[in-house]
Amino acid sequence: MKLPAAMALLLALISAAAQAADFDAAQTRRILGHGPWPPAESADRSNRLSGNRDAVRLGAMLFGEPRLSGNGAISCQTCHRPDHGWSEAKARSEGLRLQDRNAPGLLNVRLQRWFGWDGANDSLWAAGIRPILKDSEMGGSAAATAKLLREDAPLACLAQRVAPDYATGDDEAVLVLAAKALAAFQETINSPRTPFDEFRDALAANDRAGMARYPEAAQRGLALFTGRGQCGMCHTGANFSNGEFHDTGLVFFLNDPDRKPGTPRRADPGRHGGIAQLKANRFNLLGRYNDDASGQASIPARHVEQQHRNWGEFKVPSLRNLTATAPYMHNGSKPSLRDVILHYSDLDEDRLHSDGEAILKPLKLAEGEIADLQAFLESLSVPNDTAARYENLRREAAACR
Amino acid sequence: MRQSAIIAALCLGLISAPAWACADIPAQARQVQAAQFRLIVTPVPAPIPLNKPFALDIRLCDGRMAEFPQLTAVDARMPAHRHGMNYKPALTKIDWGHYRAEGLLLHMPGNWEFSFDFTGAGKRERLTFSFDAQ
User: Fold this and answer.
1) Across the interface, do B81 and A307 touch by the CB < 8 Å criterion?
2) B8 has a pLDDT exceeding 80
3) Level-2 CATH architecture, domain A21-40+193-251+318-378
C-alpha cells in the first residue's frame, strides 16, 4: 500500500472511531433495536389468504378497481398513490367527500398492529372494508363488491383459485374475501434497505469503515434521535413505530370549508373514537371472520381499553420512506420534514393532555441540529420499486382465465 | 390423607403452598417478599418483550394457602411518563395462590412499575417491582 493510501485509511479509521464514540452504550443498544431490516416475514394468522400468490394478484387488481366505489370512479389508489409512497400529496384526502385526515402511506403496513390514524381496525383486511363501505369515502356495498367478483372474468378467475366455492357464499362473505385479498397484496408493499440500515449493521459488526460511510450529519441526527430528542421512545423497532397512539400537541379541531357560520367546529377524537369504532365493528378480530383459531391475533382487541387520555391521540407513524409521503401528521398539517422537526422543537406544552405523555418537552433545537435530524430522517428513505411490482401484479391478474 | 381431612386442613390454614410451585424458580422470574408470603412473578414469554403482548404467571409462596390474600388487580405504569399501559390485563385464578394475568403490553422502552393489589383479612396490600423495558 502506498503511503498516501495508508494515511487515508488511517484517517478514515480514526474518524470512524471518533464518530462511533458519539454513541453511548444505551444509544448503541437503541440503534441496534432499529433493525435488522428487512424483518422476518410472517403470515397474518387472521387472514387465510395471507401469502397466497393468487390472492396477492387478486388484491392488486382490486386495489386499482374503481367499480368498488358507489360512483365507479374511486379506488384505493385514488388516495394511496403508488408513486407517492402509497399516500398522497393532499393534506386531507378526498373520497366522495373531503376526509378528516391525510391518507397514511402503506409501505411496510404489514408490520402494524392497528390500522388507520385512530387504529379503528385491528387487521389489515378489516381496514380495507371500512373505506369501501363508508359513505364519504368510496360509498360501495357488499352486494356490489360480490357482484363484481362473481361477474368480472379475471376477478372471478382469481377469486375461484383462492376460494373455489366463494360464489356460493353470501355477499358479506365475498366482501371479506375481497378485503383479505386486498390485505394479501398490501402485505407485499415493503421498502428496501436504506443507508441507515447499512450503518446499523456496520455498528452491529463493529465495522468502522462501514460506519464511516454513513454521512456525518445523519450520524449527528441519529445521536439526537436516540439521545436528547427521545424520539425513539415512540418511534421504536425496525419500523420506527411502536404502533401505538400519542397526543403530540397537534390541533384536533377540523377546518371544515362548508361549516355554517355560528356552528361549532368539529373535533377529531383520534384514538378515543377509534377504540369505540373497533369495539362496535363486526369485522374486528373478535368476530366470525377471524381465521386465527389460536386466539393470538385478537389479544390486542380483547384487552385494549378506552381511556380519557386517548382523546386526540393518533398513531405513531413509521419513519421509513418519509420523503415520499409529504405532507405529514394525521391531518397533513406539516408540509415538510423540517416543519415536523420544528413542531417538536417549539412544542406547545399548553396543547398537551394533563394526563398524557409527561416526557414531551420542546427540544429547542439549534439550526444545525434541525438540519442533522432532517439528514438522519432522510437517510431512512430510498427509492423503491413497489409501484412497478404493483403494475406487474395487475398485468398477471388480468391474464387469469 | 382423605379428602375431608385435606379440606379441614385447608380450613385451618395448615397446608403450605405446594413446594413445586416455589422451587425451581425460572431465571426470569421476579420475587417480592410480603409479610405473609413471597410473590413470584414469571413472564410468558420470558424475558418480557417490548411492544408485544405477554402474560404473567403469578404465585404466592411460603405461607399457608388458606391465609393467602386474594389478588384483585395487576397493572404496570411508567412513573416518569405519568401513564400506564394501553391495555387492561385479564386476571384468572388458577388455584390457591396461583394466578395468570393475560394481555399486558409495554409499548415504550424505559422504567415500568408493576403493581399487584391484594385484599384479605380486612386489609389491602400492594406489592410492586420495577422493570427496565428495552
Assistant:
1) no
2) no
3) Orthogonal Bundle (1.10)
